[in-house]
Structure formats: structure tokens, C-alpha cells
Input
Amino acid sequence: MASSVRIEVHAGAVPDRGSGDVVVVVDVIRSSTTAISGIVAGRRCFPVPTLEAAQEVAARHPDALLVGELGGRMPYGFDLDNSPALLTGQTDVARAFVLLSTSGTRVMHDSARGRRVSVACLRNAAAQTRDLLHRGDSVVLVGAATRGEFREEDQLCCAWIAATLIQAGFEPVGMTTDIVRRWSGSPVEAILVSKSCRYLADVGRSDDLAFVLSHVDDVDDVFEVQGPELVPVGRATTAQDRLRVAG
Output
């Protein structure tokens, strides 16, 4: 029986259907990009589902930066907005960071209960695809809902990954075929139609949009939620996988 690939959108925990599927959480603007960029810079990352959880983790890691937003606003007492550009501009990379977002970090945290949950963005979409090809398990690619919407940037990232899996023989399930048909051949600039991009411009965070657009497939690692932490777990780099992705 062929492995399957399913694209879904959720604002909280991804339903556990008991099938052992690998869950990949995507929140391009901005939590998955911020998380991965911070880790690549050398920091430890603790994604949390709530403000209370952020405070609890920060109490255990008193030197950690509090990074994030709720409803688009940085909570009182936080050090930085949920901003990959701001975070990568900081030089104190020995400090871990606690990351909170309206939906993305909640999906990451709450879905990782007794199963494998990875986190991806446009920076490591190709690396994530290679890893999924190497493992061969069925996959659920999850866009983190923003105000109940499946935003275009997350559809595009999910479609890029799913398209290669389908070419390798994975069976598309649910709305996956429609999303792949719409987005798989699109350039990254196609996301500019998204409300998320307009929001970043409106609140003076065009640097984050520029960061997302200019950092595509420049990270070769995959990242997995392990306990309270998001960690790099290596990469799948077999010659066969590289040929599949390149093709």
C-alpha cells in the first residue's frame, strides 16, 4: 500500500488518527521561519502554546529571550516580536528563546504528543522533502491557520513539499491535489497576495517579508519537536533522494 500525503489546516492540535503519520507543521509568516532561523543561528528554541506556558518555560531558563506575538501584538514583558529578521540580528546567540505565536506554536506543541512532529518553512522545504522521501511514511502537511484562514504562504510551502512526494508515488488525500495544482509551480513571490504580507507591511515589519522572500531552501536540516524543545535532527542526503528532489 502506497504512503499518502495529506494537506490540512489547523489552529490547534492536529487530530491523531492512529495511523502513525508524520506531521509537518508549516507557519511561514512567521513562527516556523522564526523558530528555524533562531536554531540555525545557534540558539535553543522552546515553542509554547500559551502565554502562561511561555512564562513557565522562561522561569526554568531565566536567561532565555521571550519572543512572540498574540493577536499580532508582542506581549508585555517580551524581548522581541515573532520576527525572524529581528531574532537573527541579535548577537547573543548563546541565549535560548521561548517562542509564542497565535496559532503556529500551539499547533507545534499540542500536536507532538506521542508522535513525530516536524516543523518546516520555505528555508528548509527541500530538506524536509528529502527527509520524508527517505523515511517513506505517510505525511500530514499542516498549515497553521491565521484567523481561521489557510494563508497562501503556507499553501505554497505545503504544495512544494507535497508535489515531490506525489511524483515519488505518495497518494494525495483530501484537498492535497487542488493545493498542489494551484501552488506547486509558483515562485515564492506568489505569496505576495496574502493578507499576511499586507499585514507585515502595515505594521512596519517589511523586513520580515524581505527575509522570507530571500531565504528559500538555504537550510539543509530538518527540525523535530522533542519534549518542550524544537531541535535539528539531521538530514536525508542519499543520492536517490537528491535526484528525486532535483527532478
